Amino acid sequence: MLEDQTTAASSPTAWPAAYPQGYAVVDVETTGLARDDRIISAAVYRLDARGEVEDHWYTLVNPERDPGPVWIHGLTSEALEGAPLFQDIADEFSARLDGRVLVAHNAVFDWQMIAREYARASRVAPVSQRLCTIVLSKELGLPLPNHKLESLAAHFGVVQRRAHHALDDARVLAEAFRPSLRAAAARSVRLPLHECRPLTEWTDRAVPRQSAGYSGYRPTSWRPARKRPACPYPNPGRYEVGKPLKQGMRIAFSGDTSTERDLLEDRAIEAGLHVATSMSRLTSLLVTNDPDSNTSKVVKARQFGTPVVDEAAFGQLLRDVEPASGG
């Protein structure tokens, strides 16, 4: 159930001094995608500063509930029955993450799942930064047909053996991350590092250990509803491609996002932006991962000529929001 293997690291080359000193490439399989779904397996490949594998670790985790989409991850209730609970493996998981940048494909999802599990256990994961390989591939301009892990792996000639198995997905990502990291270093690309904010409070509602069916499971919220504060800055107008966002700009969101919508909105508000619930001619920017959809907001954005960016690009723009005039 638990596996550990150590390999030798290779010799270093010239390297940007500002780059992190170590990475933890992570993959978690879960009972689903909702806020109170659970981790059922986890894998960590520890890499040194230059992306060489130091060791790897894998464990099953008993979610104490229905395992969810078995047809995807292959882990049945029977397979998980004797697995440790998350609180039983939290110390070992922490040792694998401690002092390293968490690397994952769609890292915000893995981080949120991990942060919730630690919060349930009244613990805090020892992670301060994460790096998403989807965002890094965009920074590098890799000619990928899409942003699936299999496409990134194929680009670097990495063979995937067991898709949606945490250990193999982490291995594939580690092998694809190494050349990506080297390419970034060779071009002195600033790595897209994002802050990892731990959860400090958690309230679980009762969830049946075995539900009648996965489709019947109804997720609950881990955050209370609240009224968002009014934006204190005037709207400076439309976002212009190639320029920074400016405090007071009205931002609308459409469609699914890899970051939970309320967290994404929180980040925008903290940066001094106005989160709009609808589209109008005053909207500065629409954020959507599906610009070809026909949602009402996307349709109106086309009609109004409102600029559109995807979630990853918006995340980059949030790093350097220009202060409001006179601010």
Layout of helices and strands, plus pairs?
Blueprint: E1 3-6, E2 22-30, E3 39-48, E4 53-60, H1 70-73, H2 77-80, H3 86-97, E5 101-104, H4 107-120, E6 129-132, H5 133-140, H6 149-155, H7 166-186, E7 193-195, E8 250-254, H8 261-270, E9 274-276, E10 285-288, H9 296-304, E11 308-309, H10 311-317
Parallel strand pairs: 2-5, 5-6, 8-9, 8-10, 10-11
Antiparallel strand pairs: 1-4, 2-3, 3-4, 6-7
Helix pairs in contact: 5-7, 6-7
Task: Provide a short characterization of the protein structure.
With 327 residues, the chain is of the alpha/beta class.
Give me some keywords for this one.
4-stranded parallel beta sheet, alpha/beta, globular, 327 residues, single chain, 7-stranded mixed beta sheet, 17% strand
Task: Tell me about this structure.
- With about 325 residues, this protein is an alpha/beta fold.
- About 30% of the residues lie in helices and about 15% in strands.
- It contains 10 helices and 11 strands.
- It has helices at about 70-75, 75-80, 85-95, 105-120, 135-140, 150-155, 165-185, 260-270, 295-305, 310-315; strands at about 5, 20-30, 40-50, 55-60, 100-105, 130, 195, 250-255, 275, 285-290, 310.
- The strands form 2 sheets. A 7-stranded mixed β-sheet has the order 1-4-3-2-5-6-7, sandwiched between helices.
- Strand 10 (about 285-290), helix 9 and strand 11 (about 310) form a beta-alpha-beta unit.
- Helix 5 (about 135-140) packs parallel to helix 7 (about 165-185) and helix 6 (about 150-155) crosses helix 7.
- The radius of gyration is 21 Å and the shape is globular.
- The model is unreliable at about 5-10 and about 205-225 (pLDDT under 50).
